Every structure is written in C-alpha cells, then in structure tokens.
Amino acid sequence: MVNVILPFLYACALKAGQVGDQETIYGVYCKHPKTPENSAITSTVGNLFPRFDKRTRLIDSARLLQGLLHINQQTCYNKNCEQCLLITPSCVNAPP
User: Fold this and answer.
1) Dist. CA 60–CA 35, nearest whole Å
2) Where are the domains of the chain?
C-alpha cells in the first residue's frame, strides 16, 4: 500500500488538480503505521545509528521506513557511502 497504492493515488490526484484529495492521501501516508522490517532496513538503521541500543524505536512510521529504503538503495546497498547525506563513521568502516 505504501509503496504503490498511495503514490499512485497521489499522482492521479495531482494530475487531476484535486488538491483536497492530494492532502487526504498525503495525510494517510504520513499516518500509516510502520510496516514490517526487512534486512535492508535493519542493516541501514544499524549503520546510521550504531550506538543507539533501541534504534528500531526511532523508525515508527511507514514514511520513515520508505526513506530508509531509499537511502539503502541509493548508497548502502552499493557501499556508496561517500554519496550518503547521513554518513556515519560506522558506514565507512563497515566490512564489504
């Protein structure tokens, strides 16, 4: 739902100029609960917050998970740390 349906509905509302629908869809997106974590999320959160024991509590919404997935796909997955806006020393020193 968060990856496909809501963005599709938002794009349709945007194209049709339906500002009220855009706001409603965006509100649903922002309030959508956290979806189950996967290895990409766990790894990215571990790299970004290495010293925070309860780091998974920081990610409490689907919107934040989507952001982490984007960061992972753009940088972490390919070990492209120098391009990451959220670089941490643990990322740079992470084993390949």
Assistant:
1) 9
2) 1-32, 38-89
What tokens appear for 63 in the block?
């919107």
Sign of CA dihedral 70, 74, 80, 84: negative
pTM assigned to the model: 0.63
Joined tokens for residue 2: 């968060």
Specify whether the CB–CB gap between 64 and 27 falls below 8 A.
Answer: no
Structure tokens at 40: 């990409």
CA distance 90 to 81: 10
Tell me the per-residue pLDDT of 61-81, one tens digit each, with 9 for 90 and over.
888 888 888 888 888 777 777
Q: Report helix, strand and coil shares of the chain as percent, to nearest 5.
A: 65, 0, 35
- Say if residues 80 and 96 touch (Cβ distance below 8 Å): no
